[in-house]
Amino acid sequence: MTADCLSPSDALSRRERLTGLTVAIACVSLVGVGLSLSIPLLAFAMAARGASGALIGLNAAMGGVATVMVAPFIPRVAAAIGVRPTLFVALALGAVTILGFHVVAPLWAWFPLRFGFGVSLAILFVLSEFWINALAPPASRGLVMGVYATALSVGLGAGPLILAGIGQEGLLPYAVCAALFVVAGAPLMLAGDNAPPLEKPAPGRGVLFFLMLAPVATLSGFTFGAVETGAFAFLPLYGVSLGFGPAAATLLVTAMEVGNVALQIPLGLISDRMDRRLLLLIIGVIGLVGAVALPLLGGSWWLYVGVAVWGGVICGLYTVALAHLGARFSGVDLATANAAFVIMYSIGLTAGPPMLGLGFDLWTPYGVPVAMAVLLAVFTAVAALRLRAPA
Question: Which domain of life is it from (predicted)?
């Protein structure tokens, strides 16, 4: 079913729709703060207890494993018990598991805890993004998704700053992270009946069906997840190899985040005025050219500008792809398509750093932008081939 023809937002007043959108964006943005706080917190905690880098990486990967295993079933569960109740359960699970890391001593037990935390996040992102997309007015869907992506980027950037302020020792950082999940439930209390309903999924219309039906949108999730996470891991090493000091090299990641925040609303507005599949292709081409051009900027301050613009455009893969899914599907089809998107994004999160790491080892430091260019070239080729297919 096409979402722009029949949307749950059609039955809502402008105020009810705005309230519903604000609630969902606020909820998932607070979760983003907690997520970005938890990642370095848990890494530091494991390292302090003597865990190897490989063990820390394997533990972090449990979140992706949880998403791949659980996301296909989220629409069915939400259809059975409701979107809001499912979100409340996920928030409670997130708060309990993050506190569990402080209470539970054996490191082996942190793996099921990380899996549970990943289940919580998978539910929260799949259903929150479905909620936002379902209530977004068709004429301004891209703008709404741009606002969401901007708010989420701000939230993801705030977590490490909070951790730097409160420190890594004792119960406090875990309690603050858990509190963010609890507070994220407050906006949901205001939602009333504005949560979009979900019907039972039709047989044969699962995640694999939507991976095949919307390959460009779902591949956008994989490509963005791989490039963004890989860039966050290796841009500082790339900068150091070019002669930057460690602090200055780390600011390359900050520059990328600034671009993410600055460009999502403009890209969302553009997507409301053109074929989103064509825009995704254009983003892929710009990303590919930008990755190839990064070495030409050398170690000058222009590298910060280039990374900011390039990173902001690449983030548009996430924003525009979500808007494309929302324009194409509605109801449980939209929720399932979003689950497919989140699964591909999670696979990208897992695959990106090793791919860029291999590039860095084979050709230091230029293998990093080359590896990103390869990922973007594959996406661009698929997007170009699919452009002539029916929307």
Answer: Bacteria
The pLDDT tens digits for 25-36 are 999 999 999 999
Confidence of residue 4 (pLDDT cuts 50, 70, 90): very low
Which of the 8 DSSP states describes residue 10? G
Question: Rounded to an integer, what distance in angstroms lies between the CA atom of residue 225 and that of residue 162?
Answer: 24
Q: Do domains 8-189 and 207-386 have the same CATH topology?
A: yes
* C-alpha to C-alpha distance for 380 and 383, rounded to whole angstroms: 5
Coil, helix or strand for 106? coil
* The two structure tokens encoding residue 76: 């069915």
DSSP assignment, residue 191? -
CA distance 25 to 147: 8
Q: In this structure, what token pair is assigned to residue 29?
A: 């943005």
Sequence ranges of the domains in the chain: 8-189, 207-386
Other C-beta atoms lying within 10 Å of the C-beta of residue 1: 12
Task: Give the right CATH number for 207-386 from 1.25.40.10, 1.20.1250.20, 3.40.50.410, 1.10.10.10.
Answer: 1.20.1250.20
Q: Which amino acid is at 348?
A: G
pLDDT digits (tens, 9 = 90+) for 165-219: 999 899 999 999 999 999 999 999 987 767 888 888 888 889 999 999 999 999 9
Is there a contact between 292 and 369 (Cβ–Cβ < 8 Å)? yes
SS3 276: helix
What are the distances in angstroms from CA 311 to CA 29, 166, 189, 259, 377? 20, 29, 35, 6, 16
Given 1.20.1250.20, 3.40.630.30, 3.30.200.20, 3.40.640.10, which CATH number is that of 8-189? 1.20.1250.20
176: which 2 tokens?
């603050």
Q: Are 181 and 98 in contact (CB under 8 A)?
A: yes
- Helix locations, 294-330, DSSP H: 302-328
Cα–Cα distance measured from residue 240 to residue 386, given in angstroms and rounded to the nearest whole number: 39
For residues 1 and 23, give the distance between their C-alpha atoms in angstroms, rounded to a whole number. Answer: 26
